[in-house]
Every structure is written in C-alpha cells, then in structure tokens.
C-alpha cells in the first residue's frame, strides 16, 4: 500500500516556509490506519517491549495501537504542564523554534524495553529529547519508529544510537 497517498501537505503551517505533513487522511481511513500500524509492528512482534512511548500529540495515535499489538503499556510524553504527577523535563530545538517535553518520573522502570513512536522525524530534536527522558528513567530503547521521515532534515543523525524505522520517507 502506498501510504503517501494518505498524507496531505499543508503549506506555511505552523509558520511560513514549513510544509506540514497532515496524517489526518491516513487516520480517517480505518483500513489504511490498520495497515500502517501493521507495517510499523512488522519486525517488532518478536521483540520484548514493555512500554511504548508516544510523543504528544500525533504520536499518541499509532503508539497506542502498537502498545496493544505488543501487549505493552503506553507512556505519553507531553508538552509542559500537561502531566499531573512529578515529571522530568527536556528542552529541544525544532526546525522553527524551541520547546520542552515532559514524562512522569515513574512511567518507565529501570531496564524496561521501550519503543519510541512519533508521527514525524524531522530535525530529530523532539526524538532526541524523548530518548534522553527514556534513558533518564533507565529505559532500554529498542527502536524509534515514525510514520514519516523528512530525510532532507537529517534527523537520523541526532538519534543514530537507536534503531530507526520510518514507514514513509519524503
């Protein structure tokens, strides 16, 4: 299946010069969404994964589907002020600014095997920050996977210590 047919480009969002990859059409079609989750799951079914970490907010969609398929827990990484318990915080650079991510301090136990998922790998700053949070909790990162990778932004370079899988490359 050509998943790229279900990705919509939105020009100048969230700011001028950025082409936003909208995954809404993929999520709106149940057959395509299931096929995408199956494709991301392929190669992981024999891995022992304890937690699937999804990055706010579009990373939550596939991360929860993958957690269910892997019989693993789901852990959200969110933007500041969204998690109600004690958190660790990590600052990162975006292609258009800076932001922070947070994770509950008790979300991952030392030695647990972790799969990281987000919708897009761009410059790698968000994924790099999430990986730092996972490792701060003692998680063993098995793989970082993404629906979309924007290869021209070289995000893999920031997360080269992790196995990386991307469903679509632009």
UniProtKB/TrEMBL annotation:
Subcellular localization(s) per the UniProt record: Cytoplasm
Functional pathway: Purine metabolism; AMP biosynthesis via salvage pathway; AMP from adenine: step 1/1
GO molecular function: adenine binding; adenine phosphoribosyltransferase activity; AMP binding
Family matches, as CDD domains: PRTases_typeI (cd06223)
Function comment: Catalyzes a salvage reaction resulting in the formation of AMP, that is energically less costly than de novo synthesis.
Record NCBIfam families: apt (TIGR01090), PRK02304.1-3 (NF002634), PRK02304.1-5 (NF002636)
Subunit composition and interactions: Homodimer.
Protein name as annotated: Adenine phosphoribosyltransferase
Organism: Psychroflexus salis
Name of the gene: apt
